[in-house]
Each structure stands twice: as structure tokens, then as C-alpha cells.
């Protein structure tokens, strides 16, 4: 596996650990619908929380959360809509971003950005 894939997996594991410690129930990881993927789907306080994990080894060019493009948002929303229908969920959905950034000592720092973007028509 490529080093960047290892880094991404480590970032997702860190995000799951963070969410669990903060009272979230992890429903599924790496949920796929067609070519779309959701990193983490969790539940807390009767909300379905769709989480995109973005990790960077440096913020020299761009912050991790700035890498979530409109196209990526559309694909996440599309997969979330499918998840909600497929599993007959009727709760409110919130879209979060977990930003994971390595510092100069290679320690990973996590930032949980709630309500990072709004759902819109994914078509």
C-alpha cells in the first residue's frame, strides 16, 4: 500500500477514535454507492452524521478541509441519500469534516468541523 494510503487510513482511524470518545456511535466506515464513498457514517443525539476525513502532511499549500470540493460534496450527498433510503433512516443528517494535519514533529492534530457543508441536490 502506498504511503499516502497508509497516512489516510491512520487519519480515518484517528477520526473514528475521536468520534467514539465524544459519544458518537460509528455505523459504517467507507460506505460506497456507485463511485461515491463516505469515510464515516455515525450517529449522535438522533442525528446521522456523515463525516469526510481529509488529511495532509502539511498545510503549506492548502488546509485539509479546503480540499473538499463542490464535486466531492455532491458525491458525498449522493451516497448519503442512498444510505438513508437503503437503511430506512429518517433522522436529520449533518455533514462534518474531520481535518487531520501533521505538525513539524509528525504528530497528527485533528479538527472536527461540524456542519461543514449543507446538502443540496446532488443531481
Automatic annotation (TrEMBL):
InterPro entries: Restrct_endonuc-II-like, tRNA_endonuc-like_dom_sf, UPF0102_YraN-like. CDD domains: PoNe_Nuclease (cd20736). It comes from the Bacteria. It holds the Pfam family UPF0102. GO terms for molecular function: nucleic acid binding. Belongs to the UPF0102 family. This is UPF0102 protein IW15_02385. It comes from Chryseobacterium soli.
Amino acid at each position: 500500500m502506498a504511503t499516502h494510503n497508509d497516512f489516510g487510513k491512520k487519519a480515518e482511524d484517528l477520526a473514528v477514535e475521536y468520534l467514539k470518545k465524544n459519544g458518537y456511535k460509528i455505523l459504517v466506515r467507507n460506505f460506497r454507492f456507485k463511485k461515491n464513498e463516505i469515510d464515516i457514517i455515525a450517529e449522535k443525539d438522533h442525528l446521522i452524521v456523515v463525516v469526510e476525513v481529509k488529511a495532509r502532511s502539511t498545510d503549506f499549500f492548502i488546509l485539509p478541509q479546503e480540499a473538499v470540493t463542490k464535486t466531492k460534496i455532491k458525491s458525498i450527498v449522493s451516497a448519503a441519500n442512498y444510505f438513508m433510503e437503503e437503511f430506512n433512516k429518517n433522522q436529520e443528517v449533518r455533514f462534518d469534516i474531520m481535518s487531520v494535519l501533521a505538525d513539524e514533529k509528525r504528530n497528527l492534530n485533528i479538527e472536527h468541523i461540524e456542519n461543514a457543508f449543507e446538502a443540496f441536490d446532488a443531481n
